[in-house]
Specification:
Largest sheet: 3 strands, antiparallel
Order of helices and strands: HHHEEHHHEEHEEEHHHEEHE
Strand order of the largest sheet: 1-2-5
Number of helices: 11
CATH topology of the domain at 59-145: Tetrahydropterin Synthase, Chain A
Distance between the termini: 50 Å
Structural class: alpha+beta
Low-confidence stretches: none
Helix content: 40-55%
CATH architecture of the domain at 59-145: 2-Layer Sandwich
Length: about 280
């Protein structure tokens, strides 16, 4: 068996980011062969990934980017905030997002097969997992097209937002992005709320009404009418343009847009947050 030198260990550490003892072990297992040592570390990452697949990765970082009329948001998740705040982890997440933007990736599975430094993103994630011993995954990824896009990061990479307007108003875009980050609307307006969300909310409202002693004995058609009124209140609270504007609660977001310029509209938005 060949002798493993400190220079060889340092070279492998620089190439993979793995710990000193892991690099020594890898080189020993590979009998000093550098490429085989890298493969050994990668395989160890896959084993650890399998063991930790059922763990919760509720920490991480959210990053945003814009390029050629498209916005991108990605959350790279991990298990602890200690790792999430680590500069190397944030740099790693940025490298993944950069390659996703470069190749105009539209889904997580597209990113995982992209090459970064001669390895797939999936392999590099496994290597990073082996290095830090935590579950790491691209948990969320969204894109949004538009001529007038605003990106926003809130709370030390905890929440990312993209907003598309029909006109060039960067300040308005930022204000709306802050609204979305704070209020987390389910849709742009009532027409865009999914049927599943509406039906779930309606069922909860009707059940609450049936449990209300004041509603005892009321006919179903009356309960249905009351539930529709409460559903309208839900739309006002949970859809972006109907929400009270956070900087002026006396007006809605739509009212705010109208005071800035006629026909100023929000065309779409995306919101990604850590742990949700």
């Amino acid at each position: 068996m060949s002798t493993i030198t400190a220079n060889e260990i340092n070279k492998l550490r620089k190439a993979t980011g793995a710990g000193m003892m892991d690099c020594r072990k890898a080189l020993t297992e590979a009998n000093g062969d550098f490429e085989q040592a890298i493969d050994w570390l990668r395989k160890q990452g896959q084993k650890i990934a399998s063991k930790r697949s059922d763990r919760e990765a509720n920490e991480g970082v959210v990053l945003v980017a814009k390029n050629e009329g498209v916005g991108y948001i990605m959350c790279l998740s991990c298990e602890t905030d200690f790792v999430a705040k680590n500069a190397d982890f944030i740099k790693f997440a940025q490298q993944i997002l950069n390659v996703a933007v470069q190749h105009k990736a539209t889904a997580i599975q597209d990113i995982l097969v992209l090459k970064l430094n001669d390895h797939t993103v999936a392999d590099l994630i496994n290597e990073k997992l082996a290095t830090i011993g935590e579950k790491i995954e691209i948990s969320k990824y969204e894109t949004l097209g538009g001529e007038f896009l605003t990106s926003y990061i809130h709370g030390a990479n905890r929440i990312g937002v993209l907003v598309a307007l029909n006109q060039d108003h960067e300040e308005v875009g930022k204000n709306i992005a802050m609204q979305i980050a704070a209020m987390n609307p389910v849709a742009l307006d009532a027409s865009q709320v999914s049927t599943s969300i509406i039906e779930r909310e309606r069922a909860v409202i009707i059940e609450q009404l049936k449990l209300d002693p004041k509603m005892e004995g009321k006919p179903d058609d009356m309960l249905a009418k009351i539930s529709e009124g409460k559903l309208s209140a839900f739309f006002k609270e949970q859809t972006l343009v109907a929400q009270p504007y956070v900087k002026n609660q006396s007006q809605s977001v739509q009212d705010y847009l109208s005071t800035v310029q006629n026909n100023l509209k929000i065309l779409g938005f995306k919101r990604v947050s850590v742990g949700q």
